[in-house]
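Reply to dn_fold:

You asked what the input looked like. This is it:
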Amino acid sequence: MNESFLDLAKMQWLTPENARFYRTKNGFAAMEATIPPVRDDLLESDDRTPVKQDLGRVYFHRCFPFETPSEYISVLDKDGREYGMIRSLDEFSGEAKEIILAELERKYLCPTITKINSLKEKLGYSYWKVETDRGDCEFSMRDTYRNIARVGGGRLVITDVDGNRYHIEDVAKLDRKSYKRIELYL
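and this is what came back:
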């Protein structure tokens, strides 16, 4: 077998012409696609002729969640193996686009912090009381400095002890008291 690295790294693009997204009877996102056969670890076949396959439940992953949230969406199986990539959500419309967006919204739920009412530190943890676009919220963080990430401009992503993410669109646009409370960690 004389495959080059570039042959191994060929991207399978998923488009409305070769992929159809639907909901299973239990409401999960699923895909039917005309793509080369999904390789089974036990079967080695060189036949890469696209065939129509119902691949069942699928998962979506944004490759660049902050820079281009509507582009380069990886479509994966339950074990994290990639079926292919959606170049842009704008290529899809109707029910397919609604399914993809709903799944991404659920996976990447990230309330926007609009005000920090209280921020206290005790024994290596910080305790936050904030207002978000989804209502008031309280959470705690361990190692606060490491769990606040700058993701461009004044934008921050904050991860709490349970792995929940929150974001601040522009830290400079926070009210004066909120900014003073978070300034120490910037």
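DSSP finds three helices and twelve strands in the chain.
Hope that clears it up.
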